[in-house]
Amino acid sequence: MGLSVIQEQHDVILQEIKNITQDDWKCLIVDRTSSKIIDNAVKEDDILNNNIATIEGIEDRREPNPEMDAIYLLTPDSHSVDCLLADFECRRYRRAFLVWTNLIDPNLRRRIDDFPGVRQLRASSKTLFVDFYPRESHLVTFRDPWSFPMLYHPSCNALVPKHMQSLAQRIAGVCITLGEYPKIRYYRPKNAFHEASVLSAHLARFVQEELDGYAQWDPNFPPPSNRPQSNLVITDRSMDLMAPLIHEFTYQAMAHDLLPIKEGDKVTFHTTINQGTAEEQDKDMELGEKDKIWLDNRHRHMKDTIDKLMGDFQKFLDQNPHFTDENADTTNLNSIRDMLAGLPEFQEMKEAYSLHLTMAQECMNLFQHNKLPDIASVEQTMSTGLDEDFRKPKNVLESAVRLLDDEAITPSDRLRLIIIYILYRGGVVMEDIQKLLTHAALPPQDGEVVSNLELLGGKTSHALKEPHQAPLPLFPKDPKSLQPNEEYSLSRFEPVLKPMLDALAKGTLDQTVFPFVKPPLDPNEDLLLAQGGSLRAGRPNWAAAGRRPPENRPRILVFMAGGATFSESRVCYEVGRERSRDIILISSHMLTPQLFIRQVGDLSRDKRQLDLPMERPKPRAPAHLFERPAPPPMRQPPPGQGAPMPRMGGGPGPAPGPMPTPPPTQAMGNMNLNPSPKPASGGTPEPPQPGTDKASKKKADDKAHKEKKKRNFLGMKK
């Protein structure tokens, strides 16, 4: 089995829980962020089957359980620390095993260390470095779209250092989880004029410091491996402004561009299954690693995806001839969907095929309705600088303006076309930008989207007589080496990331544009690795390098600051297959063309309107966490015995009130701090229940025990 970052994170989290429980039942306490991290990688049953009695949210109302230990798997922020200290204050659990998803700030750690009685309450404290969300086996995001304005908005300069530190810790966390201590390189653009041009250099140094610090703290890092040292490349959105704008016609990218796919804790598409039958229902279908059809087709060209879906369905009919309708047309997507509705015996397969046939059909409908073939033809010419015959193009402006006149072209596609044209030209006169927007019937404020691209290094305007030229590609291609392919002529453009990864894998990546943070002693070591042997050898081992077993394949990690595109994710898999590498793409968030244009437009908005999480008021721990349990009610005396006791000095006095609640330290002294004994048979002990004795434990019903285990997962009542 090949590398999967999802599985790696799953194993790290689960192993830590196993190390702490050690066959003794414990509670697992999570906050909202850590629960999302866990839920993204680990199944509920995997956790509950490792001696976890309950999983509860730290903000929720919880019954005190002073006879049981708790594992706190928390985000290292002030809110979680407030809630933790509230639990300490009321001695909610016997002992606390603290597990942080990332490095905790020294000031927050000091607050915990200074808490009275912390030595008795805190059993251990550990950092896991799992503060990230693997989305695919080789794709990691931080689910942080606010990273874009914090890095590029002119008014966010004061926030950049703190945000970069956070990014660096998370990038280092991915490396640590994968057991990688990579050589770090970064993108240094030539002739850059934008302020953020130093972004990659600073971030790369931050990551290097984080990894160096961890290596000094953990002498066993990195773990022993037969793999060569990995590479980490830090780059940012300014390296390729075309990729987020171009219409991409591979299945995943096209679907995210055209369809209302919902991005949340899960990636889902709302569709109707069993359409036209009694079982018809609307359903949010997840698009993820468990969906084999999605997994097999997401990087295929849409034409090939449809052929594959139809071919697979025809193969199913051949294997199950009793389902075949002789009059059905199995070459038509709608006919196949109708046939699927009549297969109740294959519900899961039916839903999966129905989902993807629906998505493919809707994509193709929009492809034709919005005249995407015409748009893409012009886009490909401008983005590559070559026409379909790989020659210098002619009449580009006329072709673009003709499309701007077409009412079938949507306003968002017109704006994308204008931006691509301006980037292709290396900027135009400001008056021409306004003319293009007016001609396209677009609002004047769309001009801000164009001008804001300069904050990302895009040249969009110049003076009337100012000399200028079209920008040179970072990795120029030789037109003579390119072969025309009519079938895929609308997919000639490739993201800059592809030739960059290809050059890195071959050991030929330009060290002036992509320098090392720490230059290696041998500047040719990557070239030697690519050749699979020594340059002094009689012949290079090209074939041997391609036959590496999956566990020994060299690894390349790429961090794309400012968001990554699905086309860039695709090329990581493609180059990985071609060059026998495991290439992991990491980014703050995934970009669609609509999101990219909106975020670029926001760069000219008032910072206060952006609702940046870093500037929101800090949440406070809920008041109910500080509530003390009510004292037990006083037993009423029998009739005739309720007279008040006389005072020592004689005379009646007031009836005694309820006993005061003991202070926390006194209450702690009354608790049983000894761990519950393990059974002599060596089996797994039952989870102790508060307020029960051994006899009642033996009589506990097994069904009730299972219900208790599943009573609460990630703060959600079952």
Could you characterize the architecture of this molecule?
Helix content is 39%, strand content 12%. The chain is built from 27 helices and 20 strands. A six-stranded mixed sheet has the order 6-7-17-15-9-8, with helices on both faces. Helix 13 packs antiparallel against helix 14 (347-369) and helix 19 crosses helix 24. The relative contact order is 0.13.
Quick synopsis:
The protein is α/β, with parallel strands linked by helices. It is built from 27 helices and 20 strands. Residues 694-705 have a biased composition (Basic and acidic residues).
**What is the CA–CA distance across the termini?**
35 Å
Q: Count of DSSP helices?
A: 27
Tell the overall outline. Answer: globular
Helix/strand class: alpha/beta
Give, in spatial order, the strands making up the sheet with the most strands. 6-7-17-15-9-8
Describe the largest sheet.
6 strands, mixed
* Beta-strand content bin: 5-15%
Biased composition (Basic residues): 706-718
Protein name: Sec1 family domain-containing protein
Biased composition (Pro residues): 629-641, 653-665
Region (Disordered): 612-718
Describe the secondary structure blueprint for this structure.
Elements: H1 5-21, E1 26-30, H2 32-41, H3 44-48, E2 52-57, E3 69-74, H4 78-89, E4 96-100, H5 106-113, H6 118-121, E5 122-127, E6 133-136, E7 139-141, H7 147-152, H8 160-178, E8 183-186, H9 199-217, E9 231-236, H10 251-258, E10 262-263, E11 267-273, E12 281-286, H11 292-297, H12 302-319, H13 333-340, H14 347-369, H15 372-384, H16 396-404, H17 411-425, E13 428-429, H18 430-439, H19 446-452, E14 461-462, H20 497-506, H21 525-531, H22 542-546, E15 555-561, E16 564-565, H23 566-579, E17 582-587, E18 590-591, H24 593-601, H25 664-669, H26 694-698, H27 702-709, E19 712-713, E20 716-717
Parallel strand pairs: 1-2, 1-3, 3-4, 4-5, 7-17, 8-9, 9-15, 13-14, 15-17, 16-18
Antiparallel strand pairs: 6-7, 10-11, 11-12, 19-20
